[in-house]
Write a structure and sequence with these properties.
Layout lengths: L5 E4 L6 E4 L5 E5 L2 H7 L4 E7 L3 E5 L3 E6 L2 E5 L6 E6 L5 E5 L13 E3 L27
Amino acid sequence: MRRLPVRGHCLCGAISYEVSAEPSWSCHCHCSDCRRNTGGAVATFVGFLRQDFSLTSGDFAVYESSPGVRRSFCSRCGTPMAYEAGRYPGEIHLYLGTLEHPESYPAQAQVFCREQLPWFRIDGEGPCYATNLTTEKD
């Protein structure tokens, strides 16, 4: 059973947060930028309204990976924490692995499937979109 607030933190614990509402969505992202940012074959995000999010300790370090895209991380341990972009106003996308109970938020879809590594497959994780959630399914 999920309980509010949703809480999370970085690896070293210097940054922690809470969200006072349920997420809008969750998904796996296969884009090359997310792979490079996490060092993994896929990144998994849980999307929340920014107004419901607050840091409870520490502050994000921020890297602008492309115009209008901000990737937040812990400057102490390097944990990727959040993604925010001008094309998603009022939203914050938290990395699933930073949540205290990631098992409670299974991915509902996959995005940027056109960039998916050919040897990496996730079965049963919802529709697969060529780019973002507003495009046609592959």
